Amino acid sequence: MNTLNVVVFLLAAGLIAMGYVKADRVRRWRGSFNPSAPEIPDSAFVAARVVLFGMAGLGIYSALQFMAVVANGEWSDDELGSAVSQASAELDGTSRLGEIFGDDSGFDEEFATMIEEEVVENGGGGAPQSGVDAGSTGSNKPSDADYTVTASGADAAFCVHVVRTRSKNGDYEPPGIAGNPSTVTVPNYDFAVTSRQGAC
C-alpha cells in the first residue's frame, strides 16, 4: 500500500475517533482550561460530528480511488502470465513479410516489439496498456531467438521463444514496371512461438 494512502487512512481513523468523543468529556476538558468559557450547545457537537465523519469518509473514498488507479496502472503476475500465454498462442503459426533485400539487422528489435504489442493487446480490461518489456538474451539469431518478458508491477518473468522459418510459397512479388516481370521478391517467414514461466 502506498505511504500516502496509509497516512490518509490514519487521519481518517483519527477523525472518526474524534467524532465519537462524548460531549460531556469535551465540556469537562474545556472547563478545566477555561472555566469562564460559555457552555457549548449540543447542536455544535452534532455539527462537528457531521463535519468530522464527512471528512473521514471523503479521505477514505479518495484513498480507495487512488489505490484503484495505481492498481490499473500496474500488471499483476496473473495478468502477465495470461497475456503472455495468449500472445504466444496467437503469434504461433503466423506469417510475416521480411525486408525486400533480406537485411535482418533490425530483427531483434522487431521481434521484441511484436511480442510486447501482442502481450499488451491480450492483457484484458484490467491490465495496463503499457509497461511491458521483451528483453533480448543478446545471443539471438533471426531464425531462433529468446526474450524475457516482464512488466511494471509484476514480479514474475516469462520466456518467449521465437523460431522464424523462410516460407517461399508466401513470397510476394510486386508488379513490374510497364508490364516487365518484377525483379524484386519480398521474402515471407513463418513464426513458431512458445512461452514458459521464468526468465530465458
Notes on the protein architecture:
With 200 residues, the chain is an alpha+beta fold. The chain contains 5 helices and 5 strands; from the N terminus they run ααααβαββββ. Strand 2 (132-136) and strand 3 form a beta hairpin. It folds into 2 domains: 3-72; 77-197, no CATH class. Strands 1-5-4-3-2 form a 5-stranded antiparallel β-sheet. The mean pLDDT is 83. It has helices at residues 3-19, 23-33, 42-72, 77-91, 107-121; strands at residues 95-97, 132-136, 144-151, 158-166, 188-197.
List the helices and strands and how they pair.
Layout: H1 3-19, H2 23-33, H3 42-72, H4 77-91, E1 95-97, H5 107-121, E2 132-136, E3 144-151, E4 158-166, E5 188-197
Helix pairs in contact: 1-3, 4-5
**Order of helices and strands, N to C?**
HHHHEHEEEE
Count of individual helical segments? 5
Mean pLDDT: 83
Helix amount, in percent? 40-55%
Number of strands: 5
**Strands side by side in the biggest sheet:** 1-5-4-3-2
The dominant shape is rod-shaped
Largest sheet: 5 strands, antiparallel
Backbone structural class: alpha+beta
Which regions are unreliable across 5 or more consecutive residues at pLDDT < 50? none
Counted up, domains total 2
Q: How large, in whole angstroms, is the Cα Rg?
A: 31 Å
The proportion of residues in beta strands is: 15-25%
N→C terminal distance: 31 Å
Comma- or semicolon-separated keywords:
five-stranded antiparallel β-sheet, about 200 residues, 2 domains, alpha+beta
Structure in a nutshell:
The chain has 200 residues and is of the alpha+beta class. It contains five helices and five strands; from the N terminus they run ααααβαββββ.
